Amino acid sequence: MITRAPFCCSLSIIFVITAWSHALAQSPPVRDVPARSIPVPETVSPQLQRIIGAPVSPNWNVFPKTAAEWKVQVDAAAAEAARRLPALREQLRVAIEPQTINGARAYVLTPRDVPAENRNRLLIHVHGGCYVSNPGESGTSEATMMAGFGRFKVISVDYRMPPEAYFPAAIEDTIAVLKAAHSMVPARNVGLFGSSAGGGLTLATVLKAKQDGLPLPGAIAPGTPMADLTEAGDTFHTNAMIDNVLIARGASCDTRARLYANGHDLRDPLLSPVYGDLRGFPPTMLLSGTRDLLLSNTVRMHRKLRQAGVESVLEVFEGQPHGAWYRDASVPESKDAFEEIARFFDKHLGK
Amino acid sequence: MITRAPFCCSLSIIFVITAWSHALAQSPPVRDVPARSIPVPETVSPQLQRIIGAPVSPNWNVFPKTAAEWKVQVDAAAAEAARRLPALREQLRVAIEPQTINGARAYVLTPRDVPAENRNRLLIHVHGGCYVSNPGESGTSEATMMAGFGRFKVISVDYRMPPEAYFPAAIEDTIAVLKAAHSMVPARNVGLFGSSAGGGLTLATVLKAKQDGLPLPGAIAPGTPMADLTEAGDTFHTNAMIDNVLIARGASCDTRARLYANGHDLRDPLLSPVYGDLRGFPPTMLLSGTRDLLLSNTVRMHRKLRQAGVESVLEVFEGQPHGAWYRDASVPESKDAFEEIARFFDKHLGK
To answer: What is the pLDDT of residues A100-146, one digit of tens each?
Structure first.
């Protein structure tokens, strides 16, 4: 059983401070933080408040035993996610077309109107889902928002996942689409983006393209990237139980990532890009939220990129748990985030 | 009495997750977070680990009753801080000279060597200390690091504080120095920076300069700004007791800020710049840390600036509590931070 929070936000601050001083008098290097009741912030929109105050993600601590059992859980979630997509595409005036591109499965998201400055540009999207979830069309939600809010043509890579294939299949599929993109528009006009596992794969794909001597994208935007699968990073602890999506270290997402890694060393830069050689990376925009379990992943990646001389910029959104800005297109902060990413691509991509 | 943390980091993750699932089953909009023991992160330098693992700041919950009693506490801390400054100046090869500039008390920090590109540039520093602390020379530590790591000439404003004077005296003194700077170098060659209360005052000074029709600085760098004295913001809750400097809402720093405000409406943009009209602000660099109680202040300010069309950039440092990057010049992350600020000023200031 868990001990209930001894304090509540309705008690006076003075009482809390008096009680806390007892705890702090010990002052150990390990910081003992008492139980707390944390209110939903009033500094975000009412729509975002609902996302921050929502129950924790289903299945966060349900661990199927085999890849095949994972697939049952994954497919159920994917069917649920896919049901919402037709309305999203209608709202944002975006058309979808499944294609096979250079041998890789993909979906092409095309806005009904593409402004002149974006007609010779192309974005490649790598979806999230802890390297195991969001197969097929269900992985296109973030790509649809980018196409809709940014008015870019977007190719969303439906990369192979367990149990169909394991590391590094996802990177190979993204590289295949990147190569194909070079026959469509100049390499400098290609942007690469995606969040969570998609953020990790965005970074890993650039590392692989560097290794293979391929032209790099003109700019990349990895959101809250799974940049360090070894679970190093302070916010794995400070934001544990505060992030209602990833919840804590060792929960479902990490378990799925290890399934994908399939026994490979988690410090391999193609699995944990924060350990990679980042010199020569294109301009990069990283995004996270103050409640994000991967805030440390994000800011560590940003500092490493800056230290490697890369033009990296950072956005951190008030109160947001993991990847909240692409949960619901009707949230004002979602539009704000995608318009920020669009301005970044507009600034850095060739025309 | 406080309930001791029922879990410890040495227990297995699986056990923690099992226990936590009971707490989460309730899923209320208010998030109940159980007691935790948070280790010092291994993703920062050993020197920074000592700062993150240090005991909480003295006097965080000691509240003198009058401005005169505050002065006794403040002077004792200032004497302690000032003792460390000669060694810091020697280490960074920076000279100090007290001056009265346009009627305001100030200290001029001059590096032994100023590179050619900075000889026609000037930085103005506004120190922190919750609007009440760090009088006289004791407020020059951050300015000394900026002068030393960035090789800029820096004027640190020793603005009037309670009980000598109250809001808006600090802004008046900074404006006086800003006006004087315009007779020394072109306005575009002036940078303005400072952290905590100094970050709030940096922003408030630009708002006041706008109101008064003065030329604005060429760029500003407010660190972890006290940009919202109403105590709104999610990290006041999520980072409570995790930040070992500010500790929690309603602790000493907020009490000092209210002493300075002296009964004025805390939503006045000259006290809480996040509520101000930010259009036309110069390029801005904001800085914070993942454990900072004012991380929300910082990222909210950043988004407001971006939404007002300002070229604002954000730096968030791994594991750092409030203002950790200017505590100790021998910490590698301090050098990294000041060199980042220096590059920002170099990019945006006139020569």
So the answer is: 999 999 999 999 999 999 999 999 999 999 999 999 999 999 999 99
Stretch B269-295: mean pLDDT, rounded? 98
Place of tokens 């202040």: B297
* Record: contact A35-B3, CB cut-off 8 A: yes
Number of inter-chain CB pairs under 8 A, A vs B: 239
Q: What backbone torsions phi and psi does residue B322 show, to the nearest 5 degrees?
A: -50, 120
Would you call A76 an interface residue with chain B, using a CB distance cutoff of 8 Å? no
Q: Which residue from B38, B295, B314 is facing A33, i.e. has the nearest CB? A: B38
- pLDDT (tens digit per residue) in B168-207: 999 999 999 999 999 999 999 999 999 999 999 999 999 9
Percent of chain A having pLDDT more than 90?
87
In the DSSP assignment, the letter for residue B329 is T
Structure tokens at A136: 């097929």
Q: How far is CA A203 from the centre of its chain?
A: 11
CA B27 to chain CA mean position, Å: 36
DSSP-assigned beta bridge partners for residue B122 = B190
Encode burial over A185-194: b for 16+ CB neighbours within 10 A, e otherwise.
bbbbbbbbbb
- pTM value is 0.93
- What confidence tens digit (pLDDT) does each residue in A246-293 have? 999 999 999 999 999 999 999 999 999 999 999 999 999 999 999 999
Cβ–Cβ < 8 Å for B296, B246: no
Q: ipTM of this model?
A: 0.92
CB nearest B27 (choices: A22, A56, A240): A56
Q: Rounded to whole angstroms, how far apart are CA atoms A260 and A272?
A: 13
Q: How many CB atoms lie within 10 A of CB B346?
A: 17
Where are the extended beta strands (E) located within A102-212?
A: 104-111, 122-126, 154-157, 190-195
Task: Say if the Cβ atoms of A33 and B36 lie within 8 Å.
Answer: yes
CA of A315: how far to CAs of A197, A299, B11, B303, B314, in Å? 18, 10, 34, 8, 7
Question: pLDDT band for position A18 (50/70/90)?
Answer: low
Q: How far is CA A166 from CA A169, A170, A343, in A?
A: 6, 7, 35
Are B318 and B45 a contacting pair, CB within 8 Å?
A: no
